[in-house]
Automatic annotation (TrEMBL):
InterPro entries: RutC-like_sf, YjgF/YER057c/UK114
Signal peptide start-end: none
PANTHER family the record matches: BLR7761 PROTEIN (PTHR43857), YJGH FAMILY PROTEIN (PTHR43857:SF1)
SUPFAM superfamilies, per the entry: YjgF-like
Entry-linked Gene3D superfamilies: RutC-like (3.30.1330.40)
Pfam families referenced in this protein's UniProt entry, alphabetically: Ribonuc_L-PSP
Name of the protein this chain belongs to: Enamine deaminase RidA (YjgF/YER057c/UK114 family)
Native organism: Sulfitobacter noctilucicola
Length: 136
C-alpha cells in the first residue's frame, strides 16, 4: 500500500508536522482548510458562500495532488463560526457536490481570524465509477 502526502506551503505545516492532503492506499484525507489565500489575505471575509466555494476549489486541488477527485469524497466536515452561516455554506456545498452526495457534518467552532467563517475537511475513497476499489 502506498502513502502520498501533499504540503501546500501553509504557515503551520512544517512547524506542526502535518500535510494538507494525505493518501494511504485508496483513502485520501484533507486537513481543515479555511479561506486564507496563499498571500495571507482572507478570501471574501464573512461570506460563507464565497468562502465555501473557494475552500472546495482548493480542496479539489489538494485531492488531485494525491490522485483523488471530488467524486471520491465520502465525508465532509464543516466548521462554522455561527450556524447563521449555514445557508451560504449549504448552497455552495450543494452546487459543488451535486450528484456526489457525500455525508455531511456541520458544527460551530472558533476559527483563527475574524472574517473566517468556514473551515472544511474531507475524507475520500478512491474508487471506480461503479464503486470498485483499485487493487494497485
Amino acid at each position: 500500500m502506498s502513502v502520498q502526502i501533499h504540503k501546500a506551503g501553509g504557515r503551520f505545516e512544517d512547524i506542526g508536522s502535518y500535510a494538507r492532503a494525505k493518501r494511504i492506499g485508496p483513502f485520501a484525507y484533507t486537513a481543515g482548510t479555511t479561506a486564507l489565500e496563499p498571500t495571507g489575505k482572507i478570501h471574501a471575509p464573512y461570506d460563507a458562500y464565497a468562502q465555501t466555494k473557494y475552500i472546495l476549489m482548493r480542496t479539489e486541488e489538494f485531492l488531485r495532488e494525491v490522485g483523488a477527485e471530488l467524486r471520491h469524497v465520502a465525508r465532509v466536515r464543516v466548521y462554522l463560526t455561527e450556524m447563521s452561516h449555514a445557508a451560504g455554506f449549504i448552497q455552495a456545498h450543494g452546487e459543488v457536490f451535486e450528484g456526489i452526495d457525500p455525508v455531511l457534518t456541520a458544527v460551530t467552532a472558533g476559527l483563527t481570524q475574524p472574517g473566517l467563517v468556514v473551515e472544511i475537511d474531507v475524507d475520500a475513497v478512491i474508487h471506480s465509477v461503479n464503486g470498485d476499489i483499485p487493487t494497485t
